[in-house]
Amino acid sequence: MAENDMPAAERVARLKERVYLTFTALAVVLALRSHAEHAGEAAVLLLITVTGTLLAVLVADVVSHIAVHAALPDRGELGRMLRISFGALGAVTLPFIFIGLAGLGVWRVEVALRASTIALVASLGAIGYIAVRRVRLPPWQRLIVLFAELALGAAVVGLELLAHG
After folding, report:
1. How far apart are CA 104 and CA 106, in angstroms?
2. Mean pLDDT by 10 residues, the chain (165 residues)
3. Closest CA to 120 of 83, 80, 160
């Protein structure tokens, strides 16, 4: 199903999950920059964190559905939840490729993690652009919204760097 053909609620959920996963991956990559010595270690820690995040989001969706509808999700709704949760994996493809290159000896681990950080921050910028491109505001106001999102993203990065110094 093309994104334009999706119901608005599903598009919102997909974007939201990509943002969650991107920020989570960014936090892990920033922490790994000061701790990881081997590509395998970095890949396993990122994979565990990404998998845990996706499963947590899925559980939250199921629990929310049960609380609101007083019933388990049907097969179609569960499929939608799975597509939304695991569809966010595209947000972390590049970091896994970069870490894989480090594992193959093409890059050093530090370079792979730096490239991953850049890719994840760029991804947040792209997600922000996708979010504001349809907003019915003058272009200058859309730009303010986009910069506000990027500023919040930069604050998250700054806090992570401060925490993992």
Report:
1. 6
2. 70 86 90 86 94 92 94 94 88 95 96 95 86 85 86 81 73
3. 160
- Name the H helices within 34-138: 39-69, 75-87, 93-103, 109-132
Residues 147 and 132: beta-carbon distance below 8 Å: no
Other C-beta atoms lying within 10 Å of the C-beta of residue 103: 16
Closest by alpha carbon to 32, among 92, 88, 106, 85?
A: 92
Residues 165 and 31: their CA atoms lie apart, in Å, by 9
How many residues are listed for the chain in this entry? 165
Distance of CA 88 to the CA centre of its chain: 6
The answer for residues whose C-beta is within 8 angstroms of residue 14's C-beta and 6 or more apart is 3, 6, 84, 87, 88
Residue that is written with structure tokens 């922490």 in the block: 31
Q: Measured between alpha carbons, how far is 80 from 73 in angstroms, rounded to an integer?
A: 10
Distance CA 133, CA 15 (A): 13
Half-sphere exposure of 126 (CA within 13 A, CB side): 10
